[in-house]
Each structure stands twice: as structure tokens, then as C-alpha cells.
């Protein structure tokens, strides 16, 4: 990720937290989540992370298509269960 992406990610996270604070109380998280919400840190998930996760369960990539249309989408990876024809 670039510095610009980091800034956008931070701004998006700030907007989510601000939206939660200003929405109707009926739609706010319960008090259970309040301690963690203030320290919310969201890590972007890469296509390779997903491929690696599925590989541990017997899937393998059969095609990769990119670049993504939007940065957060990652590349399109087609998977199949290992050993399938």
C-alpha cells in the first residue's frame, strides 16, 4: 500500500467510527463493543492472503486476473480443489 492508500484507509476508518457515533442510538453497537471500537484497527486483506488460506484447505489457483478495478478489491483469482480435473 502507498502512503495515499494509508491516508484513505485511515480516513475511511475515521468516517466509520464517526458514523457510529452520530447514528440513531437504536443502531449503535452495544456497550460490549465500546472498549474495542475506539482502538479499531482494520488490516486490509490481500488476494494472496486469501489464496494462501484456501491452499491450506486443498485449493489451488487456476487463473489470476488483474489488475483490480478498485484498489481494495485485489485481483480476481479462480481456485479449484486440488486434484480436480
Keywords:
85 residues, alpha+beta, 2 domains, two-stranded antiparallel sheet, 2 strands, elongated
Give an overview of the whole structure.
By secondary structure, this protein is α+β, with helices and mostly antiparallel strands. The protein folds into 2 domains: 1-44; 45-85, no CATH class. 39% of the residues lie in helices and 15% in strands. The chain has 3 helices and 2 strands; from the N terminus they run H-H-H-E-E. A two-stranded antiparallel sheet has the order 1-2. The longest helix has 20 residues, at 3-22. The chain is elongated, with a radius of gyration of 18 Å. The N and C termini lie far apart (36 Å). The mean pLDDT is 76.
- Report how far the terminal alpha carbons are from each other: 36 Å
Number of strands: 2
Class by SSE composition: alpha+beta
Q: Could you name the ranges where pLDDT drops below 50 across 5 or more consecutive residues? A: none
Number of domains: 2
Tell me, briefly, the overall form.
Answer: elongated
Helix content: 25-40%
**What characterizes the major β-sheet?**
2 strands, antiparallel
**What's the order of the H and E elements?**
HHHEE
> Biggest sheet, strands in spatial order?
1-2
What is the arithmetic mean of pLDDT?
76
Concise description?
It contains three helices and two strands, in the order αααββ.
Amino acid at each position: 500500500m502507498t502512503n495515499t492508500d494509508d491516508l484513505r484507509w485511515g480516513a475511511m476508518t475515521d468516517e466509520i467510527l464517526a458514523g457510529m457515533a452520530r447514528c440513531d442510538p437504536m443502531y449503535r453497537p452495544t456497550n460490549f463493543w465500546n472498549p474495542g471500537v475506539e482502538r479499531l484497527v482494520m488490516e486490509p486483506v490481500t488476494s494472496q492472503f486469501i489464496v494462501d488460506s484456501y491452499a491450506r484447505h486443498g485449493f489451488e489457483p487456476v487463473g489470476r486476473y488483474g489488475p483490480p478495478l478498485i484498489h481494495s478489491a485485489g485481483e480476481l483469482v479462480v481456485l479449484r480443489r486440488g486434484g480436480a480435473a
